[in-house]
């Protein structure tokens, strides 16, 4: 497996986006095009997507994207390509991932509002590796109001095969979103590898 992993290693250099009261790194071309294409095809053909809804202003509205979960204690298992990419993400971050959430942005009208990745009582300092497949979308970060940080929002276009890693105190002091962009007609899949609990592998 190590030889196979080496074939898909990214030659691009990571870029630190956040280093103050958080740790966010952008890894362009984490997957090469062939593996990114294969993973996108596999997930597109094999995933059962769910359309969630929520109450807003007294009315029930659809969440503007579709979701799914895979891995341990999730409704759907790991797929072969997804298992390979999970191992790559574990090697890159030095962290074991138990499961992942998937978001399907069908076009530029699908989005996610400002939020932090905290799953209920989940430790906010656990590592999240966020992988992008398909259409290029803008990913934005900004400090939470209560953080006391003075920093303009950070914007970066994430493309097919790129990864963003959030660790440390990021979820305590920063929030992120993917804004709407009606100009985009293509579909994007986002995979966030996560942990049920802290469990470093090396």
Summarize the structure.
This protein has 202 residues and is α+β, with helices and mostly antiparallel strands. The chain contains four helices and 13 strands.
What does this structure look like?
- The protein is of the alpha+beta class.
- The chain has a single domain (2-194), classed as Alpha-ketoglutarate-dependent dioxygenase AlkB-like (Jelly Rolls).
- Helices cover 19% and strands 35% of the residues.
- The protein is built from 4 helices and 13 strands.
- The protein has helices spanning 2-7, 33-46, 80-93, 170-173; strands at 15-18, 23-27, 53-56, 59-62, 66-71, 99-105, 112-115, 128-134, 137-143, 154-158, 163-167, 174-178, 188-194.
- Strands 1-2-11-8-13-6-5 form a 7-stranded antiparallel sheet, with helices on one face. A 4-stranded antiparallel sheet has the order 7-12-9-10.
- 30% of the residues are buried.
Throw out a few tags for this protein.
single chain; 35% strand; 202 residues; 4 helices; alpha+beta; four-stranded antiparallel β-sheet; disordered N terminus; seven-stranded antiparallel β-sheet; Jelly Rolls
First-to-last CA distance? 17 Å
Low-confidence stretches: 1-9
Q: Assign an overall shape.
A: globular
Number of strands: 13
Question: So what's the oligomer here?
Answer: single chain
Rg, rounded, reads 16 Å
Sketch the topology as an H/E string, one letter per element.
HEEHEEEHEEEEEEHEE
Enter the CATH topology name: Jelly Rolls
Number of helices: 4
What's the CATH architecture name? Sandwich
Percentage of helical residues?
10-25%
CATH superfamily: Alpha-ketoglutarate-dependent dioxygenase AlkB-like
CATH class annotation: Mainly Beta
Number of spatially distinct domains: 1
Based on secondary structure, the structural category is alpha+beta
Q: What is the typical, i.e. mean, pLDDT?
A: 89
Q: What fraction of the residues are assigned to beta strands by DSSP?
A: 25-35%
Largest sheet: 7 strands, antiparallel
- Largest sheet: spatial strand order: 1-2-11-8-13-6-5
């Amino acid at each position: 497996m190590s030889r196979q992993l080496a074939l898909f290693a990214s030659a691009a250099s990571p870029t630190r986006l956040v280093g103050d009261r958080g740790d966010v790194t952008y890894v362009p071309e984490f997957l090469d095009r062939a593996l990114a294409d294969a993973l996108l095809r596999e997930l597109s053909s094999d995933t059962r997507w769910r359309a969630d809804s929520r109450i807003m202003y007294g009315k029930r509205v659809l969440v503007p994207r579709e979701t799914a979960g895979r891995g341990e204690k999730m409704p759907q298992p790991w797929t072969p390509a997804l298992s390979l990419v999970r191992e790559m993400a574990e090697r890159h971050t030095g962290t074991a991932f138990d499961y992942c959430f998937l978001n399907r942005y069908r076009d530029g009208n699908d989005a996610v509002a400002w939020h932090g990745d905290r799953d209920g009582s989940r430790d906010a300092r656990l590592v999240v590796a966020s992988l992008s497949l398909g259409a290029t979308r803008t990913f934005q970060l900004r400090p939470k109001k209560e953080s006391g940080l003075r920093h303009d929002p950070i914007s970066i276009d994430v493309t097919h095969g790129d990864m963003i890693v959030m660790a440390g105190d990021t979820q305590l002091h920063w929030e992120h979103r993917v804004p709407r962009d009606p100009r985009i007609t293509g579909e994007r899949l986002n995979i966030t590898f996560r942990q049920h609990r802290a469990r470093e592998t090396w």
